[in-house]
Amino acid sequence: MKNTKINIKLNQLIYPLFVKNGNSAKEPILSMEEVYRFSPDILLDEVAQLKSLGITNVILFPVADKKNDYAKYAYSEDNIVYKTIILLKQNFPDIVVFADVCLCAYTTHGHCGILKNTNNNVAIDLEPTLSALAKTALLYAKAGADYVAPSAMAKGQVRAIRETLNENQYQHTKIMGYSAKFASNFYGPFRDAANSSPQFGDRSGYQLNPADPQVALLKIKQDISQGADVIMVKPALSYLDIIQMAKNKFNHTTAAYNVSGEYAMVKAGVRAGYWDEEKIVAEIINSISRAGADIIITYHARNIAKWLNE
Ligand code: PBG
Fold this sequence. Notes:
The N and C termini lie close together (6 Å). By secondary structure, the protein is an alpha/beta fold. The mean pLDDT is 96. Helices cover 40% and strands 18% of the residues. The structure holds ligand PBG. The site of ligand PBG has 10 residues, from helix 5.
């Protein structure tokens, strides 16, 4: 360990995992060094290693091979995240499993909701979108997810999911809302990883305007009142002020997502020899924690665990 202290406990970190159909697959993601798309069998080996490093929390993202305009494969039992949660819970009952709930990986157009039929205009059809999100969340709860994490930025998504879970006796399944999710350039590498880029238009109609902190605080407040156990600010580094305001104002369990683009910048600089990886990651993680995040979702989690174990 160098003289850079990372002031975080491993149980405050969540490690993102991409899962796809198949066997023996560990596919590198070009935009995100050391991050892979795993088939379920190899993902189990990976989680065994993470566990031995002291990582207790993971969040799952699908790389979907079947898509349609209405995201119907999101809530079908062949959903790869659904199958993976079952396997994970059979093998590692004490790993805390978060499941991202969104439609962008399952829609042909790549938007996070179902669209009204308006030739390449991005208008979310709210009612079927909420229904698809709630059905997907219920499927993940049935598989044993500890947390479902709606990230579609559809109005009322937390309430719709909470109600559906409760009606089906999943009161104990918790919700982490992607409450303040900004329309950010920093998601680029993730969309490459999950093959979930919008095929036309952008997400600025449903993700938040980076220039508007008040809307972000309002969204967080709404998520709390709809039943979010954890609220999230995303991305982290360009929005440390929002994390701090949210924590001070609501004093609710607050997560921050240190996203793919933030990770890719660090890795590019390491490769170019601009900085030391461990030291720069310590500076980043400490800043997010100082701002008030109780939980940090980060692709650096695996390396942080290694460094903290040294
Ligand atoms: C799904 C989703 C995205 C991310 C998490 N969930 C992509 C997006 O909104 O386009 C991004 C995570 C990252 O960049 O690391 N909607």
